[in-house]
Amino acid sequence: MEVKRYTNNTIAEIELPRPFDGHGHPRRDELLRLVGPMMAKRFASGIVMPNTKPPITSRLVASEYRDDILHSTDHRFSPLMTLYLTDTLDPAELNEMRTWGIYGVKYYPKGLTTNSDSGVFSPSSLWTPGTNAFNVLRKLAEEGGVLLLHAADGFDKNNNELDPYDQEPHFIRESLPRVKDAHPDLKISVEHLSTAVGAEFMFKNGGYKLGCSITLHHLTKDRRDVFRGGFRPHLMWWPIIQPAEHKEAIQALAIADKRFVWLGTDSAPHPVSSKRADCCMGGVLTHHMALEGYVEAFEDLGALDDRFERFASINGPKFFGFPPSIKTITLVREDWTVKNSYLTEGLQEEIIPFRYGETMRWKIQD
Ligand code: NCD
Ligand code: ZN
Q1: Burial level of 6, CB count in 10 A (0-12/13-18/19+)?
Q2: What pLDDT is attached to residue 114?
Q3: What InterPro entries would the database entry show (predicted)?
Q4: What is the per-residue pLDDT across 230-256, written as a single tens digit (0 to 9) for each?
Q5: What separation in Å is there between the alpha carbon of 8 and the centre of ligand 2?
Q6: Nearest residue CA, atom 6 of ligand 1?
């Protein structure tokens, strides 16, 4: 990473290969038209989540969605597509997946997050031979694709409903080892790692076959922020933002310079009526400031150096099996204020972005 400093040694400017977003929800139609330029401004490429309405369950639909994203980003962003793992996804959809621009399959536990109704009913089908999910994962390993895990369980082995704060730890302890053992050749990415249990598992087991993405919100926010003065719907994501000790464990993992850890925003915009609602939807827009926020976070952690470049631009592409961008991006130390909301032509409702109204101290040089 190229760094320019002021005479007092404070970093004034950084230049790095254009980053990769390991996990994004650019949505479709009007929302995509809002989000596309935000992604293209910050990222060379990114993994696109398939939980649209309806979900992306065939390579034909994936390639139509890919075209829409290319159009919305003026071809300045490479969308790396994923298919939604359902109990009926046809393994043949993965034939020569890379030639269709498909890099992986996303596992959603049924009902545990936004648009997850089509998700896999029973997590055990991931490791039980003969199930449809098992056959898809076999095929995925053969094709060299990645299994992306929404690493959460809804129930324990006695069928008791889990506390939301325990969903990820339970999956990491009980389900992930079984998935790994059942599919030793499969590359697995644990998405939006959010707990100390997850971080410890990664330190022990991360490598060429197992990695994880880290969001900006799990890196910088904790449960105190979510409930300060009352519930803050614009800090509500799945997986849920954990108590501070988990955030600290995620921070330690992010700056530990491990090749199996990379940036993944989980930017997930929802119209304001879905956030200020009886049942607040999980997910918030971060594509409007994500890279600037990660730079700030790494600086606050004393790690704004080559570790940041590897986290943001190198590790993800290497894991997914393509070269890092040869283009660069420059960020300068300059204050700017996040908008309170976005409302563009065609959007029926406002989108309230992450850190609305707050001052950012890093800016992308146009
Ligand atoms: C995501 C969404 O809104 O699509 N929401 C979220 O809270 N992260 C779904 C997801 O990635 O789980
Ligand atoms: Zn997501």
Answers
A1: exposed
A2: 85
A3: DHOdimr, Metal_Hydrolase
A4: 999 999 999 999 999 999 999 999 999
A5: 40
A6: 283
